[in-house]
Amino acid sequence: MSRKARESPRELFMREPPEGSGPLYRNLIHPRRPVEVAARQRCEAMWRLFQPLADPNFLERLPFEFHQRWFEMYLGATLVSAGLDVRARTPGRGPDFEILVDGRRVYIVAVCATAGDRLHADAVPEPVYRDAEGRTVCAQVPHDRISLRIATSVRPKLNAFDRYRAGGLVVPDDACVIAVNLRDVPQAWPDAKEGFFRAIYGVGNRFMVIDPQVGEIVSTGREHRTLLTRSSGAAEAVAPMLDPNHSDVCAILGSSADAWNMRLPFGDDLVLMPHAGARAPCPRGLIRRGVEISLSPGEESGSWSAEETDYGAAEPRGPEALTVEHEGCLFEGEWQITGGELQIHIDGRGCDVIFRGGGEDPSLTARTIGLEMIRSKTARL
C-alpha cells in the first residue's frame, strides 16, 4: 500500500458523538441492540484493513456522512481482504483506489445513490403497505424512478473519469470502474441486480405477445430503453455500459450493503457489470467476490446475452445426516446444499434458507437451525 498507516492507530468511533452527527453514527457509538453491536464490530474490522488507505479527514467526515464514508471503507476493506495490490490516490486529485493487476492499473471511484429530494417529483418514496384504515395494500415498485436515481449518481463519475484522462491522471490502457451503492434508495436493495440492469444496461419491463386468434403466448421478452424522461421533460441516459461514448469506463461495480445489512466475506454482495465494448476491459475475476457478469452478442443485432459467475455460491453438497439433541432426546434428519440453498429436514419438518460460501460450516448451520426447528415444535405441543 502506498500510504503508510498512522504512527498511532486511531479509533474509528469517537467516545461521544459530535454535535450534528447523523443517527446511524450515533447508534454505533453506544450500541444497545445485538444488531448494532454486530454492525460496530464489522465496522471496526473493516477499519483495521482500510485505515492505511483512508483520507486524512475520513474520521472527521464519518459522523456527518456516515453511509457514504462507510461504503468507501467497505470497498477498500473488500479490496484489501481479497488480496489485491491496492493503493489510495492523493485526496481530491484522482480516483479513490488504484489496483495493480498483472502490470495494469485499475482505478475505482465510489458513489452512493440517494432517494432524492422527497419534495421532487422524481424522488423515490418509502413504500406504503397500509391504507388510512390500516388495511394491507400492495406497493408498486417505482422502477423508473429508481433507475433515474442510480443513473444520476453514475453520471458525475463518468464525467470525472473524462477529467482524469484529460489531466493525464488516467491513461488509455488503464481500466476505470465506478462503484455504486444503492442502499439509500427505497425499494431498490431487495432486488439490487434488477435495479442496476435497468439503470446501466437499459433493461425495461417484461412483456408478452399473445395471439388473440388462438389465445396463446407467441413471445416474451424485456423492453430496452436507452433514455428515461424526467418529470421536467429532460432525458436521462440509462444504458451507459452499452454506450460507445462511455467505453472509457470498463465496468460498474454495484453494491446493496450497509453497516447493518451485509454478508461475509466483505464484498459478497457486489455485482461487477462490464461495458459491452470497453476500450480497456476490466480484468476477468478482478475481485472474485459476489457476482461477475460477462456479456456476449445475442442472436439479434444490438442484443446481448449475460452470464453470471457467482464467486460466493456454496458448492453443492449432501445429503448428509443431521442429529440434534433436545431435552435428552435425539432427533435425526438430513441436510444438503443445492441451488444456493441450505435445505434441512428433521422430525418431519423442512426448512430452506439461502446459504453462501465464505468459510461458514454448513453442518454447524444446519445443526443450529435444526435445533431451533425442534424447539419451536415442542414449544407448541
Q: Compute the CA-based radius of gyration.
A: 23 Å
User: How is the biggest beta sheet arranged?
Assistant: 8 strands, mixed
- Continuous helix count: 7
Helices and strands, in N-to-C order? HHHHEEEHEHEEEEEEEEEEEEH
Instruction: List unreliable stretches of 5+ residues.
Output: 1-7
Structural class by sheet pairing and helices: alpha+beta
Task: Assign a percent range to the helix content.
Answer: 10-25%
Q: Alpha-carbon distance between the termini?
A: 60 Å
Number of domains: 2
User: What's the β-strand tally?
Assistant: 16
User: Given the C-alpha coordinates, what overall shape results?
Assistant: globular
Mean pLDDT, rounded to whole units? 91
Explain what you see.
This protein has 381 residues and is of the alpha+beta class. The protein has 2 domains: 23-310, no CATH class; 317-379, no CATH class. It has 7 helices and 16 strands. The protein has helices at residues 23-29, 34-50, 58-61, 66-81, 143-166, 192-200, 362-379, and strands at residues 85-88, 97-101, 104-112, 175-181, 203-211, 216-224, 227-229, 235-237, 251-255, 271-274, 291-297, 304-310, 317-326, 329-338, 341-346, 349-354. The strands form 4 sheets. An 8-stranded mixed sheet has the order 1-2-3-4-9-10-11-12, sandwiched between helices. Strands 13-14-15-16 form a 4-stranded antiparallel sheet, covered by helices on one side. β5 and β6 form a beta hairpin. α2 (34-50) packs across α4 (66-81) and α5 (143-166) crosses α6. The chain starts with 22 loop residues before the first helix and ends with a helix.
